[in-house]
Amino acid sequence: MKKIATFNINGVKARLPRLLEWLEETRPSVACLQEIKSQDEGFPIAEFEKIGYHGIWHGQKGFNGVAILADGEKPVEIQRGLEGEPEDDHSRYLEADVFGLRVVCIYLPNGNPVPGPKFDYKLRWMERLRRRMAAIRAEEVPAIITGDYNVIPTDQDIWSPSAMAADALMQPESRDAYFRLLGDGWTDAVATHNPRGGMWTFWDYQAGAWQRDHGFRIDHALLSPELADRLHACGIDKAYRGREKASDHTPVWVQLRD
Predict the structure, then answer these.
(1) What are the tens digits of pLDDT across the range 164-174?
(2) What secondary structure does DSSP assign to 27-67, as a single string?
(3) What is the number of structural domains in the chain?
(4) Which residue range is the domain that position 55 belongs to?
């Protein structure tokens, strides 16, 4: 079995003790990280290597940034960044081959405020992602596209739909773009195993959201047809959100048959 996880860490240096703790306690085969908020030269790879993980990363000063760590094996980079907007310098996309899988780590734009240029950028980015995902599907490789999608797919994926009704994460255009990915043949692992919803991956730091369980699901793992057939289990490591100096996200994982 291989366990692939995604974790928006909200600052790899600020959360390093929590991140190392999670890696050692749950030992995913592959960990995809978002919002590392670190330039490439400052990424603390030596700390991960001490516990047996190797990695590649695509950093940016102060915000964004993605990384792929693998237990005992170095991921082989395939692509960083998405084609279609040469002027887009945000570090949001990283693709690699590891353990016989194509693993893609994404940090999709938030898109707020709506309407506006940031929302337009989000929708364009999702269309660019869709084109890349179509190219990966055409290769017929077992693939997982995982990370922070910044999309709440359905009303079942949030504690109160009315609370975020005006937010970019819940706009019809955002949801339509997400469901177009599923319509292309990708499987939302968590939704497949939990059709009734009620599974949150994010709780805001404000207004006692964690304590009141006012969360929503925006961290997703989409599987290609070749990989969906191998889905054994999936879950959300909710308890890690409650630890001291935690990220506002919690890890999401899938377990795949060999």
Answers:
(1) 999 999 999 99
(2) --SEEEEE-----GGG--HHHHHTTTEEEEEE--SSS--EE
(3) 1
(4) 2-256
